[in-house]
Amino acid sequence: TASATGTLPSTAAIDFTKKPLLTGLFRNEPNVNRLEDLYGSTRGKIQHISIVSNCNLDVLKAFVATGWAPVFRSRRSGKGHLSAIMKYDDADQQIQIGNPLSARAKRQRSRMGRTLTYSEFEKEWTTGSGNTCVLITPKRLHDVEIHAALKKYLPEEQVARVQVRSR
Fold first, then answer.
1. What is the sign, positive or negative, of the torsion defined by CA atoms of 83, 128, 31, 76?
2. Whose CA is closest to 125, among 97, 146, 99, 153?
3. How many CB atoms lie within 10 A of CB 117?
4. Taking the CB of residue 54, how many other CB atoms lie within 10 A of it?
């Protein structure tokens, strides 16, 4: 995907072991039916959270390229649970998702995450999260900062549709 200022890298990855705030969310995974519910249910536990809506796969990939691990609610076997994007690879058309706590247990490779095709991921993500993701960061991200990061990789009209609610 091209923009006036740049393009998405063909691959990018997040090292979950360097994201302690993200690990904190998964350590005591809140029981929520919608990602928007994380805003209230994590108050007092997670200081800075951004609920980002009207996303698509390119927006999520831009977050990974920026170094932010988008968290989403997936729905498998009828049960919803939180996952984060670890890596994407355009050449293979695959995305790797997982739980940061499992990523720390490197000796158990099967727990490192799941690899899905882009179409498999989009189906799972849109069913569980409705084109919404969550960013957990060390400082509060305002919509201006999130939009500026996205503009490095995506066209202005695509970035303009993205909505942000932060604390």
1. negative
2. 97
3. 12
4. 14
Number of H helices and number of E strands within the chain? 7, 8
Each residue's pLDDT tens digit, 21-41: 887 777 777 777 777 777 676
The two three-digit tokens of residue 100, written as one number:
């940061």
Nearest one of 117, 87, 107, 99 to 11, comparing CA atoms: 87
What residues form DSSP beta bridges with 53? 163
Q: Which domains does the chain have, with CATH numbers?
A: 11-166 (3.90.70)
Average pLDDT, the chain: 84
Dihedral sign of CA atoms 113, 119, 122, 127 in order: negative
Q: What is the DSSP letter of 130?
A: S
Show the DSSP H helices in 42-155 as ranges.
57-66, 100-104, 118-129, 143-151
Phi, psi of 121 (to 5 degrees): -60, -50
The answer for 166, left when phi > 0, alpha when psi is -120 to 50, beta otherwise, is beta
Running DSSP on this structure, what letter comes out for residue 2? Answer: B
The structure tokens 């995450």 sit at: 113
**152 vs 141: CA distance, rounded Å:** 16
